[in-house]
Records
---
Amino acid sequence: MKELVIASNNKGKVKEIKMMMQDINLYSLEDVGFDKEVPEPYDTFNENAHTKASAVHEYTGKNVFADDSGICVPALGGAPGVHSAYYAGLPRDNDRNLEKLIADMADKEDRSAYYKAVICLIWDGEVYYFEGECHGTLVAEKRGTGGFGYDPIFVPEGYDKTFAELQLEVKNNLSHRGKAVKKMVDFINNR
Ligand code: IMP
């Protein structure tokens, strides 16, 4: 079986990605003994994904991938965007981030938003990128308990439930991360 390290400590993400990659032997950062916090100082998803993947690749020498993702809101000039994980400041706190986004959207007419994910894969020493987007709208009040992060207010296009109300299988089929992971899995399966 092919082996790959997933360079993320985000439990929500890791759970989703593991569900989508059952034919590949996935190692967590804990499995490979990597316990450093990698800074994400850049203004692009690509650069942040690359910095995480390469730190873990240098440490393990193994094939590895990292995802950098966030939610982009046109009415807020694209924020929180790459800063989604610490929108309400440090330390990172998903609940405070969500409350801040709800408050920032209170007076906005345009409620469109999209999630974006960029995966950086380092495979046999070469660097590859895979992207996915998922468009939808933001509701004013939280609904549902599934997913993570901003999911309780994000309703994907074509649905009337939030990502936090939909089954994880459904979310994975349409999500930004799901789309990027599928592209990466197709790539790996053809190696
Ligand atoms: P990263 O770990 O730096 O990529 O941060 C991603 C951040 O974007 C998360 O902490 C969430 O705030 C947000 N995010 C990314 N994907 C999702 C998702 O699928 N649902 C909800 N929030 C997400």
---
Amino acid sequence: MEVVRLGNDVLRDHAVPVEEINDEIRSLVEEMFDTMVKSDGIGLAAPQIGRSIRLFVVRADDGVKRVFINPQIIATSQEMCSYEEGCLSIPKYYDDVIRPERVTVQARNENGRRFTLEADGLLARVIQHEYDHLEGILFIDRIAPEKKAKVEEKFRKKAAKETV
Ligand code: NI
């Protein structure tokens, strides 16, 4: 599976809900975990592999593989914190992003079971980053506009080179 990069329109789409959690979705989830681990990532959202559906996978520092299908962030803490983020779709760029410290998320897993999770630390961070992907939002949208413009320009040039 190839991870799509900044500049690909699919990253900017508002992803649609998963209608049925079936074997196709379960094998997609497995492939996404494989791709994520191979790329040294800790989270991967379906739009990043070219599927504009509301699904992401996470494996944060506790090592637990978590699947979020049709997730909803139902609460966020007032306390904010800064953390350096990166994204498999924006390789080799890292920057500090301020987000709520804790989140509560509701979703279904790959078996269709609904769950509610209260997360803090790195897990809360990854969940928010991946959730953003489903809304067509990238972490560079949350940094200074002039820095974002530079990153976008760099990737535009790279993409132009690759298509020549
Ligand atoms: Ni990302």
